[in-house]
Every structure is written in structure tokens, then in C-alpha cells.
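Minutes, project check-in
Item: structure for the 150-residue chain
Input as provided by the requester:
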Amino acid sequence: MTVLRNLPDLQKLDNQAVTAEEVSCAMTEGEEIAAPPAELLSAENGSPRPTTGHTCGEVTTESENDLLNFSMEETNKIREQLGMKPLPRDKFSPFLSPVEPYGNRKKKNNVLNAILLLLKDLDAEGLEVVQRTAENRIHQLQRKEIQQDR
């Protein structure tokens, strides 16, 4: 499932043809594998460097501070270029932005538009697969939401 989720265009797996149904099921049940953060890649050969024990999905205080420092430095550079005084660290809070950054909204919107355009090309059988996949995904999200509320 994980392989098909991360490689949905795969035609054969273990010398067997991959069906649309299998891909649909994998998209809802398979695990998504994220690429390692760029700082984990070695500049010399692109091979992963050992991590400090954090998983890729974990947000640590250390990484939050790094992001804050980077954002603060960038903001202050721009402020200085505009002839403004730099902001002190205690006045700077990039976390006041909306819950979902613009990039995520834009990506989701692009994905939705692509899906809607692709739906026009599907026949009844393909649309049924999409419908089942969407229903499975909705149920999966609802279960996750219920678990988070507990």
C-alpha cells in the first residue's frame, strides 16, 4: 500500500499489473513517505546524514527556534533595506499568521482543480472508483478527528 501511495503511476508491482482499485485503496490506507528535510542531506554527495533522534514529522523546540531566528533575520534584513529599525526578538512572532500558510492553501487549491479537470475524462467506472476513494478518505479523516478529540 505504501509503495503505491507514494508511486501512484506505477504500472507493475512484483511483476503484476497494478489496478486502479489498488491505487485508490493505497491512496487512503497507505502511509505517505515524506522526503527528508534539506538540512539532513550532505552537501557533498546528497546522502542522508545521521539525525539526532527526531522523526521527520516531529516539530521540536529546537527547529521552531531555528525557524524563528531565520524568519527574524530575513525580516530584519528587509526592514534595514527599507530604512526601518530591526525588530527585537521579543517583538517578533511569525506564529501569528493564519493556521494554514498560503503555500498549503495554494497547493490544495491546485490539487483540487487538477482533480476536477481529470474527472471530466473519466467514465462511469472510473468515477465510481473516485467516489469510493473519496468516501474512504472522508471516513478516515473523521476517525482521525474523533481520535484527536479524545
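Outcome recorded: The chain is about 55% helix and 5% strand.
No further action items on this chain.
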